[in-house]
Amino acid sequence: MKRDLFRDEEGFTSVGVVLALLITLSLVFSAGQVYRLNAAASKVQNVADAAALAAQNVVAEFMIVVKVCDAAVLSLSLTSLAATGLGVAALCTPVTAPASEALLSAGRSVARARDSFAEKAASGLNRLQRALPFLSAANAASVATADGGGSSSYLALAVLAPDEGQEIVVGADAATEALQDEVDGEAEGISEAAKRAEEAAERANEAKLRGFERDCGANPSYCMYERARSLAGMEGADNPLYRSVDTWSFAVALERAKAYYPHRLAAERSENDSVEERARSKLRERFYAYAAQEVERGYVRESEGSFEAFFPHLPKNTEEMRATGLYTEAVYPVTEGADGTVMHAWEGCPEAAGAVRFGSIEQMEAGSYITCPACGFSAASMGKVAAASTSIDNGFEYHYEKVAEAAEDYERARAELDPLANEVRERAGGLFDRLGDALGSVAGMRIDARPPGALGVVVLAACTGASESAWPGPFVQPAGALGAQAAVSAATLVADPAGEGASVVSSLLDGLRDDGGAAVGALGIVLDCWSGVLGAYAEGQKALDGAVSSALDGLPLAGASGLGSWAAGALSEVVSAVGLEPANLDALKPALVNSAHVASADDGAFAAQLLSLKRGAMESPFASNDVFQSIVGLVEGGLVEGIDAASGSIVIAEVRVFGDSGPAVPIEFALPEAAKGMAVDVIERIADGLRTVCAQVTGARVWE
């Protein structure tokens, strides 16, 4: 049998074992070399990632300052309009009219402060965003330097995308100025009409109070309620008792009177059987029947804007009785005798037998009738019936007459009040309508920004320390030093809805509140209102409503005319209709992304060059060592504008609510520690360092 030296029947040979071991050892040492290479590369990649996050964090902090400036502009706009609205409301009562001038003036002052702040804030933010490339680069370079140690040191160059921000321009707010001009033109007329309305309202309220007291307010003393209960036994719905003049109306008294006389007529009885008393009782019946018919003609027509009432007057004496139907009604029996004609009080009079006709008191006085010796009936007899209950306060008619007089006084006062109140409501209401329109238009005067780095940042990083020597081994080809170690990283801003952004902005706004100073009177109300309105940026409509409501509580708007309360309600309604939504306060935080994502979102030269080189590196990996060499020079020139400040922060603008004489509240931007005192030419040195590192691999053989 022929034997094969390289295999046996089972396929296992000595030569095969040797080859397998050699291949295995080669793969192990190659994998170790790859791991060593990747480990070295990961160090610089980690530095690049950290530098990218640090660079983009500067942009995130800039956006927080933008939100604070926007909150200040919005709050000042709303406060200006709120102060104007409060001034209009204050015009509606004489007590608050003097404060109106201060409130309206404060509204203009706050609007001027808003305009001044917005202009300075836009200028300061524009200056700051032009320096963002430098600040971000400085922050990235500082992080890269801090990550070095031992023989390793790192350089990092951060490039923002876009590298230039959009100019921040604040819109105009013509509606506020137009409204304030209109208010100034209407102020005197509204104030004068409100003053006269208040005077008329005070007279009306005094008359109504008198009527209430005479009807039922004086209970248990004499009043219509008490007399009706005592004299006619009236209870329940026919004789209601009101405890407050605010719930009472003249209609209550009139309805009580309409119920009283039928009750009193039905209950009328003579006190004894004497002819004189029986005659008086019959005359009282006649009077009650007449009063029931007369009072039934009465009416009260009342609405929010008008009042009409008719309380028929009942006669108080004989003279007044002669002007009523009691004088002319022919209901009294007349007899003829030898001595002349006699008229009797009623048919039941002992002397009235054989009456030939019925006559009136008017006929009796015209015909000089003889007085009946039994009942003694005369014109004065009926006059005394009315006089007995209208002349002294134990009579129902006495109090009814006082209510009737009060109703007439109330109607006269309302006749003056209602047109004046309607005038105030119409003129002030028109201003409130324009205020609502102005509140809806302040959204046009806001601060928004698309700064450098809005799309993200790309960082170029490299290790500038001594290159590590190659890992010698029997199964890998020696390659000398590993060469330059470089990496590209990128980061962008993402919203974090965890609430940190709201906390940061709210904290800064709280600082504005605390530093806002103190004032008293109308200015104090406006300053407190601004403090409350600041919360509307984060909380929306609820905070705005609360701020205006609190300011209204600080004004004594209550008055006899009710115009102050109306104005407060109208202003609150207009403000509530704004529907202000809270600003988006999600924190913007840097997050690592593929550099292609950042570059593809930007249309700048750097982004285009980076994308081109990345595509070339993917197509020809061995030609990718010139990535930095190609683009460092492209971005170097755009990172040279620094911040001329040695302190830890720069003032963007100051909020001066009441002009130069009022408190000043600065809004500042804290400089990154790395940027404090850093020379502008540091960017050039970093670029030179990166070029030097990259030059180390020019022409070098790619590690195999």
From TrEMBL:
Protein name from the UniProt record: Molybdenum cofactor biosynthesis enzyme
UniProt keyword annotations, A-Z: Membrane, Transmembrane, Transmembrane helix
Transmembrane segments: 12-35
Source organism: Rubneribacter badeniensis
